[in-house]
Amino acid sequence: MQVVAQDTAPDPALGSLQSLLQDYQEEVASPSRQTVSGVLDALIAAEIPGTPGFLRSWDSRALYERPDDGLFFYATENADGTLTLIDIDTEDAAGTVTTREVNQIRPNAGVRRVIGAVLVQFELSDDDPALRLSALESITRSPDPEQIPLLAASIPDEPDAAILLRKERLLALLTARFGETAEARIAAIDALGGDISIEARGALNLILGSTTTFGTELPAGGNIAREIEVGTDLGLDEAYDQLVADGLFPPRPTPEAMRAALQANVDAGAVGGVPVHQLDTIPARERAYEQLEADGLVPPLVTDADVADAVSGYVFYEVYAEDDPAITTAAQDALAATQLRLGVYQGVDLGLDALSLASIFFLAAIGLAITFGVMGVINMAHGEFIMMGAYTGYVVQLFIPDYTLSLLVALPLAFMVTFGAGVAMERLVIRHLYKRPLETLLATFGISIALQQLAKNIFGTQARPLTAPDWLSGALTINDIIGISNIRIAIFVMALIFLGLLLFVLKRTRLGLEVRAVTQNPGMAASMGINPDRINMLTFGLGSGIAGIAGVAIGLYAQVTSEMGANYIVQSFMTVVVGGVGNVWGTLAGASLIGFLQKGIEWFNPSNTLAAQTYMILFIILFIQFRPKGIVALKGRAAGD
To answer: How far apart, in whole angstroms, are the C-alpha atoms of residue 373 and residue 589?
Structure first.
């Protein structure tokens, strides 16, 4: 239990807070919503410095009454369970008591709301920024017209730029809803135009709030939002129900009520002169019911024609709760500007998501693009190299608990592990199947199944965690709409780094020169002293190593399982084929096209990502029909094949 200190020492000239409270002793000790206002008005008028601290204690149920003399105290709890009473004026200790010797004052929720509303005016200018923010939160939760002058008075002396901006926005929101003049409200509403915050959109929607009503004609002076077309905007039965609710027409009996009425009026095997065995059709039941109606035994039957005739005599429309058309027009214009900006921001956010997805596809596919372009090998086990890289990161974290250090170790280690696995696979299997694409596809498919089963045997079938370091947690948030996770940013940066490194290796190193030579013309490259067999081995190992690094990156946000590679093998092949085999820029273009295309399709149907992937594959099939060599066509052996 904490002491709530007063803000400054009491000024004797202003009087004692305790003496004022004694004038309202019963109202303070047993507060209610009907009596608390008198106490609060007296406290505000007295301007005693300790008032804010007292109100906070009263609101937080940290105020005690001593029944012997009716005095009020703050208190702190001691280790032995006793309480040390604190004088509310001097903050001096006033003795030690047990909890049985004092009464804790517990205002109910309604009283606390009233106290909190009054406390706002003190906290808006408090020296503590946290209290000022708390006051703004309180105003946001319970806006009131009386808060406008208090908030406006606190703005000129606000030293904190962020809080000042928050106050100015909140003042605009309050003025837009509760301003004294139409001019002030319209000016505040205009200032909210283009503001995409939830508070601003909520305020504008409240101003444009409307209710559905009806009449024999549209009112001449009403602020009509729109006329409702019955049958299109409002169902015929729903319109009739509104007339019934207003007592203008009798309700339609439900089929269940009609059936019960017929059963209750069976007489000598007939109902209303209709034999019971003939009541198996709706027209027969209606004839029987009409006869009972004529006899005064049941409520009147309302037919579809009766409903249509009743509704046709009325006009249904929505009317704004706000009476001034100028204010609602300004709110509509402001909301339209907000929706326009909202659409732009949503487009930017969608673009960031697409860019993030494209970077993932690029990392997953670049290794495959290199091996496919240089060697013409369709490696169906490429996804399993991604899986191996992810599991390498998981194993590293088992031995290195520091997630940042483990990530720095896992990236090169994953490259080395998958590079070695790729070289071994090329030496043992792939090199014996060159120029036999079908056998290569089947062999690598079998290897992928074997690697998946091996991973299940070692790590089990459950997903394993690959935890990102703390500095990769969270997200970069630009505003209420635009945001991207830090992990996705890191993957994008990694994709850019790999793009630069690959371009450097291929364009500026001896290995890159030999790789390009073998890609374009392996026979001529061999005649110039280049060993194509060695280049194929190193290229396959390089592509596999890059896939391992991609696995570490992907494992930071996706589940690490034995099947995780299968989720990316299809996208990797599509990226390579669409972009153009064996070309880094082609892979980048293909990843960008597929990433943006998939996110664009998902935007139209966000609840069904499978449908988005299906439409994307259909689009790519059509794309390949018109550009079979991809976006960036390759010259050389791969292109010829």
So the answer is: 15
Contact 180/214 with Cβ under 8 angstroms? no
**272 Cβ contact list (under 8 Å, min separation 6):** 265, 287, 288, 289, 290, 291, 292, 295
Cβ of 228: how many Cβ atoms within 10 Å? 17
Q: How far apart are CA 52 and CA 443, in angstroms?
A: 79
Give the per-residue pLDDT at 373.
65
Ranges 219-228, 278-287, 320-329, 385-394: which has the least confidence: 278-287
What's the rounded Cα separation, in Å, for the pair 484 and 476? 5
Question: Coil, strand, or helix at residue 148?
Answer: helix
Over the stretch 466-497, which tens digit does the pLDDT of each residue have? Answer: 888 888 888 888 887 888 888 888 888 988 98
Q: How far is CA 159 from CA 134, 163, 164, 567, in A?
A: 16, 8, 7, 53
pLDDT exceeds 80 at position 552: yes
pLDDT recorded at residue 60: 85
Spell out the residues 6+ positions from residue 377 whose beta carbon is closer than 8 angstroms to its own.
371, 430, 433, 434, 437, 440, 444, 540
Q: State the DSSP H helix or E strand holding residue 256, giving kind and residue range, or none if neither.
A: helix 255-264
Environment class of 514 (CB within 10 Å of its CB; exposed 0-12, middle 13-18, buried 19+):
buried
The full length of the chain comes to 641
Beta bridge partners of 485: 475
> What pLDDT, on the 0 to 100 scale, is given for residue 396?
94
Dihedral of the alpha carbons of 42, 46, 47, 48, in degrees to the nearest 10: -100
H or E element in which residue 134 lies: helix 129-141
Task: Determine what percent of the chain is predicted with pLDDT higher than 90.
Answer: 16
Q: Using pLDDT thresholds of 50, 70 and 90, give the confidence band for residue 374.
A: low
Q: Which amino acid is it at 250?
A: P
* Strand segments (E) across 70-127: 71-77, 83-87, 93-97, 103-104
